[in-house]
Amino acid sequence: MKKHRILNTRAPRIDAADKVTGKAVYTDDLRRPCMLHAAILHSPLAHARILNIDTSRARSLPGVIDVVTSQEAGIRPYGVSPARHDETIFCHDKVRYVGDEIAAVAAVDLDTALEAVSLIKVDFEELPIILDGLTAMNDGQPQLHEIYKNNICAEVHWQFGDVEKGRRESSIIRTDRMISKMQDAAFMEPQSVLAETDARGHLTMWSSTQAPHYVQRTLAMALDLPLHKVRVIKPAVGGGFGPKASCSTAELVTCLLALRTGQPVKLTFDREQVFLHSRARHQFFHTMTTGVRNDGTLAFLEHNCILDGGAYASFGIATVYYSGSLLGGPYRLKNMNYDGYRVVTNKPACGAQRGHGAVIARALFEVQLDRLAEELGMDPIELRLKNVMEAGETTCNELYVSSFGMREALEAVRDSAAWKKKRARDGQIRRDGKGIGAACGFFVSGAGYPIYRSRTYHCTVVTKLDEVGGGVTVSSGAADIGQGSDTVLAMITAEELGLNLEDVRVQSGDSSLSVDLGAYSSRTTLMTGHACREAAQDVKQQILEAISGCLGVPPETLDLKDNRLISLAGEIDFSALREEYLKEHKGFASLPETAHLTFAEAGRIAFLERGTIVGTGKYKPPPLGGSFKGATVGTSPAYGCSAQIAEVSVDLQTGEITVQNITGAHDCGYAINVTQVEGQMQGSMMMGMGEALMEQIIYDSEGRIVNANLAEYKIPTALDMPHLRTIIVESNEPAGPYGAKEVGEGAIMPVIPALMNAIYDATGVRIEELPLTPERLVAALKAGRHQKSSI
Amino acid sequence: MKKLISLTVNGIKHELAVEPRRTLLEVLREDLGLTGTKKGCGIGDCGACTVLLEGVATFSCLTLAIQADGCSIETVEGLAEGGRLNRLQQEFVNHGAVQCGFCTPGMLMTATELLRRNKHPDEKEIRRAISGNLCRCTGYQKIVEAIQAAGEKET
Predict the structure, then answer these.
(1) Do A682 and B139 count as a contact with CB atoms less than 8 A apart?
(2) CATH 1.10.150.120: which residues of chain B?
(3) Do A21 and B85 touch (CB under 8 A)?
(4) Angstroms from B138 CA to nearest CA on chain A
(5) Could you tell me which of A136, A478, A622, B25 has the fewest CB atoms within 10 Å of its CB?
(6) What pLDDT digit, counting tens, does each position of A208-246 carry?
């Protein structure tokens, strides 16, 4: 029998109808009376000392209301990570990348604001630049920040188990490298901000953010405002994927101008500014040495990584830790060393992006597994199955997996994609232009600790019973950025209260409603889901207690189901309650006449008995992880895992790659909304495929992005994408609400290596540099023909 | 200097005085308050601003408002019929073809044009038709399925 009435269904998103009619309101759709428009002056140079800023001509332009630089904004440092506050609202001593923010203007319209920006004169003294992350640490390189000696923003040195012992036990050891490129998130909605103050000094900001709570804190800190007087509201958001989790300059500048002018101020990035502001995927330079025993058992991993993080830290401290920690799973790996360095360069700052820090590390490790399998003469899926972890195990870096459908996921894609039929045996490859490849992945289901050091609850939810009866309103600071978290909260609430989905309203994404750390680290379903469930149960208990008092029966004999009150102890006489309700609603149409007390009646009577009924819920994870330095990054109450198989065909003359299909299986614990789980898997496949095959930010020698637009920065179109097959694995996570855990990011993990392994199967050549463009493939094929062998 | 133009948007005629350099997208969003049509790039790369101009799917960010003088324009706000979602909209909802929703209005307008000239498009025809509309959330799978389902129900 089905466990739930609403959960585990394909209920349509609660915001879908608004989104298909154009009614959904995004930040740039908002307008306020007397609204000003803001524009930002970005640095045209990648590295230069600011000698003088002359704003006089801008200030005297008619229609200009305010011009601000670091002089007006102050130089209070802020940042994502408390250990690395390396940004100020405006550059004051020097600029560090093309796009760095120098000044801003508020004017009566956007044209005037833009014209004023062009009238600001800045005198620079140009400084030598460093664009190459690989050599940024070398002695003698230009230095970006005084606090980052040799441009090292963060470094990690971990030793787990005994790598030397693993090396001695290995029969095959190989070292491989991979270089990726900075990837843009390319969400469809450019960042947009609208800020205003009231006469009492309260600041309200509407913004396309993923993390209202963190942004509220950063605004209060950088602008020196009391936290409770800063309210951040997230309207509908057109995708985030990570970069919208950090407080942006657009947010700070707009609020500053609103505070100074006393008028509402709006600023919307154009597409080039989205690329310039970035905070997207780092560039990774990975080197891994992995050993296996004769039977395919993994013996050790020695991993070195340099991350090019651009000019500022942003989320990058977490990134460099994630790059190492998430290789602890999904395989039994007892011995692992990791040395990671995040360096700064004169490029836009990188931050968190879907699969935070772990995507390219995963790609190289999964490629290595295939190469080791080939040397062992083993089927690559067999090699993986031999090593996968099971529920109840702990990784060498002390990550505990309480549920784990890795084996089931891998077997599901193997069987669904007819792997055994299509893949040649004994690790041999085809080289005939057709290829098939597999890979796995592993990801957190919510970060175990907040970004700032605190024992704060990670989320709270307040659910209020409608005092007129009939429905409930769920209030949460959680951020639905398109992934569908509002729908998940509505479904959980409807399930618990026996309500219809349409009778649950969700108001969310507002820092004044509750603390919620936001949409990052695939945390919302598990964490806010817990709090939401608790709040709904609290409301239910209060309703049942109130009604039980009226009826003179114990509350435990009552329940709310199918939009009505039911008795578990035989018939009850509720005629007095019905009569009272009918009397109150004289003249109303559609009055209840059923044999049961409706939810509307029960809710109204409960209010008459008790007054306001509010349920509250909260969640924070238990203490997690080890005690070594950086042990918190990678901890999570639960871990998702996934497997994918990609099939490709490659034109061996032109290098053109066509992805025929991708089959993915993801263990999400329990699918609260089946359609949405599939949607996250499919979206992940697309984003991973883009990073594997076409996406790369390209810089010229002066540090300028040459493809800061969606024509030359290529993301997959409907014609590039193949048919995507999705299989949901449900392992019933003990730490998750109803057994649920993540899907939003874990599903991106296997995409790149599955494609790389398939392309190798098709061509016989390995490429160490992403993206796998036809040019790189043709060059490698030519080189490969000379060498006769790619190994 | 402003120019007087007339636009018939979703069946309603508007007389407007507009600067000749302003785009149809700006006039729809700012002057007429029809914010359903989205600006994702402003330079014709993403398709979020797609509207139907005399029935033809058109990037409103690349069209000057004065070029549309005297024309009939359809936007996402005009799709619902009598307050009810039309078939295509309903299939988008049912199939989970909407995530963040920012590409949705443009995607719907492109699909509307497709279904008018080809009532029962196959998967390949659908993918070709929407290849100028970028979506970063869905991998296109459910969008393709929704359009195909809407086509299958066409008589």
Answers:
(1) yes
(2) 87-152
(3) yes
(4) 4
(5) A622
(6) 999 999 999 999 999 999 999 999 999 999 999 999 999
CATH number of A457-619: 3.30.365.10
Please tell me the distance in Å from A527's CA to the nearest CA on chain B.
Answer: 21
Please give the pLDDT value at position B152: 87
Q: Considering chain A, what is the average pLDDT of its residues?
A: 96
Measured CA to CA, the distance from residue A366 to residue A692 in angstroms comes to 14
Q: Taking CB atoms and an 8 Å limit, are B138 and A683 in contact across chains?
A: yes
Share of chain A above pLDDT 90, in %: 96
In A689-760 the beta strands, taken as DSSP E runs, fall at 723-729
Q: What is the pLDDT of residues A148-189, one digit of tens each?
A: 999 999 999 999 999 999 999 999 999 999 999 999 999 999
Domain at B87-152, CATH class = mainly alpha
Question: Are the beta carbons of B94 and A12 separated by less than 8 Å?
Answer: yes
> pTM value?
0.97
What is the distance of C-alpha A661 from the center of its chain? Answer: 25
**Residue A791 pLDDT exceeds 70:** no
Residue intervals of chain B classified under CATH 3.10.20.30 are 3-77
Looking at beta carbons, which residues of chain B come within 8 Å of A271? Answer: 40-43, 45-46
> What is the per-residue pLDDT across A37-96, written as a single tens digit (0 to 9) for each?
999 999 999 999 999 999 999 999 999 999 999 999 999 999 998 889 999 999 999 999
**In which band, very low, low, confident or very high, does the pLDDT at A786 lie, cut at 50, 70 and 90?**
low
Instruction: Please tell me the distance from the alpha carbon of residue A585 to that of residue A319, in angstroms, as a whole number.
Output: 58
d(CA A306, CA A286): 7
CB-nearest to B127 from A17, A189, A719 is: A719
Report the residue from B40, B108, B144 with minimal CB separation from A188.
B40
CATH of the domain spanning B3-77, picked from 3.30.428.10, 3.30.450.80, 1.10.12.10, 3.10.20.30? 3.10.20.30
What does the block give as tokens for A570?
Answer: 């035989």
Instruction: Name the closest residue on chain B to residue A20, using Cα atoms.
Output: B89
Helix or strand or coil: residue A666?
Answer: strand
Fold match, A283-449+626-787 / A457-619: yes
Does the bond joining A330 to the residue before it have cis omega, within 30 degrees of 0? yes
Determine the residue among A19, A266, A267, A663 to mutate to test chain B binding: the one whose Cβ has the most chain B Cβ atoms within 10 Å.
A19
CA dihedral of residues A404, A406, A409, A415 (deg, nearest 10): -140
- The candidate with the shortest Cα–Cα distance to A414, out of A438, A450, A440, A448, is A438
Categorize the per-residue pLDDT at B154 as very low, low, confident or very high, splitting at 50, 70 and 90: confident
Summarised one tens digit per residue, pLDDT across range A655-666 is 999 999 999 999
CB atoms within 10 A of CB A571: 7
CATH number for the segment(s) A27-127+208-225+243-263: 3.90.1170.50
Q: Which among B39, B99, B147 is the top mutation candidate for probing chain A, defined by the most A β-carbons within 10 Å of its own β-carbon? A: B99
Pick the CATH number of A283-449+626-787 from 3.40.190.10, 1.20.120.450, 3.30.365.10, 3.20.110.10: 3.30.365.10
What residues have CB less than 8 Å from B147, skipping those under 6 apart?
Answer: B88, B91, B97, B111, B114, B115, B121, B126, B130
Q: Does an H or E element contain A65, and which?
A: strand A64-68
For residue B142, give the nearest of A22, A185, A682 by CB distance.
Answer: A682
Mean pLDDT of A578-593: 94
Going from N- to C-terminal start, the domains of chain A cover: 27-127+208-225+243-263, 283-449+626-787, 457-619
What pLDDT score does A434 carry?
95
Residue among A13, A710, A718 minimizing CB distance to B41: A710
Q: For residue A702, list its beta bridge partners.
A: none
Quote the pLDDT of residue A82.
86
Helix H or strand E segment including A209: none
